[in-house]
Write a structure and sequence with these properties.
There is one protein chain. The protein is α/β, with parallel strands linked by helices and 319 residues long. The chain contains nine helices and eleven strands.
Length: 319
């Protein structure tokens, strides 16, 4: 069976981290290592992690002082001993059979070119979402394993990457993903797109479910709008990477020209629909408008600065 590393990147979530680690330890055998990457925590994370390391040889601690989830994940990839690295968020707990499902899948891979596999995510809200919020649904793609189409994605909070393929691809892009309290996204989608472009495959894995905790502070208007803005911003960064030279500039200029119109339409729709469905429809339109603003800011910040467009990677053997 291929060696497995379970990586939990954490920042200032000491109480939740303990629950995450204990849920994994309850399923892990002696051939599995658990890496905790502390990304500049200032709470009791150091104390919590020290207790786990002292009591269990399977647990190892590394520190990434530069803030950024992608940086922490890249450190985990560099230090991991496993052929496969399963990333679990520090605010998640694994369901029964989670690790066994991954182990069986890696022992009998459905395809030689499989480089990514991930399972279900069940969202657990600390408080009921407000009436104006359209709560996110769970990730559940069915009872059978299958290869995702190009552009299809899993959720990084419960996802495994083949270590050699990711190191070959150039790791997670540190421009993307969360940076401390600043939301960020698309780091997994960006990496998966690069892998799929050269022939690697992404697979859905049934039976490997986790529960993902949604904190109450993410259920207020300020956080929702900030999240929408940064989602748009990081989406712009990722999409620019797929283009180079004049195509990059033309894409940015075209999107910037139509952005005011699109934003205005969404704001008008939000205003008109406000009285309906407890404001849920209006909030959806407002979120789209804020996302467009974030997308435009991402274009403006990046397109004229000559940032890299992604490392080229070799195709896997047999492609």
């Amino acid at each position: 069976m291929p060696a497995i590393t379970i990586a939990i990147c954490t920042r200032n979530r000491a109480a939740l981290l303990g629950k995450a680690v204990r849920s994994v330890l309850a399923q892990a055998g002696g051939n599995v290592e658990i890496l905790i990457v502390d990304n500049g925590s200032t709470d009791d994370t150091a104390k919590v992690t020290a207790e786990f390391v002292a009591c269990d040889a399977r647990v190892k601690l590394f520190r990434e002082p530069k803030i950024g989830l992608s940086r922490a994940r890249n450190l985990a990839l560099r230090e991991a001993a496993g052929d496969w690295v399963i990333f679990l968020d520090d605010d998640a707990e694994v369901e029964p059979g989670w690790l066994a499902a991954y182990e069986n899948f890696f022992s009998n891979p459905p395809a030689a070119k499989m480089a990514v596999a991930g399972g279900a995510v069940v969202l657990c809200y600390e408080l009921p979402p407000p009436k104006w919020m359209k709560a996110s649904g769970n990730l559940e793609l069915g009872p059978k394993a299958f290869c995702l189409p190009v552009g299809g994605d899993l959720w990084e909070c419960n996802c495994a990457w083949r270590r050699d393929a990711v190191l070959q691809a150039g790791d997670f892009d540190s421009q993307l993903g969360h940076r401390g309290e600043v939301a960020g996204y698309r780091e997994g989608a960006d990496l998966n797109a690069r892998l799929q472009n050269v022939g690697y495959e992404i697979w859905w894995l049934p039976g490997a479910a986790i529960r993902h905790f949604i904190h109450a502070r993410r259920l207020n208007l300020k956080w929702v709008l900030q999240s929408a803005f940064h989602s748009g911003r990081t989406t712009a960064i990722q999409r620019l990477k797929a283009r180079s030279g004049h195509r990059r500039v033309l894409y940015a200029v075209g999107r910037l020209l139509v952005a005011p119109l699109h934003c205005g339409i969404n704001l008008l729709a939000a205003l008109v629909s406000f009285p309906f469905q407890n404001g849920r429809v209006a909030m959806g339109e407002l979120i789209r408008a804020v996302s467009i603003v974030g997308f435009s800011c991402g274009l403006l910040q990046r397109v004229f600065r000559g940032n890299h467009v992604g490392q080229k990677i070799r195709a896997p053997e047999g492609t």
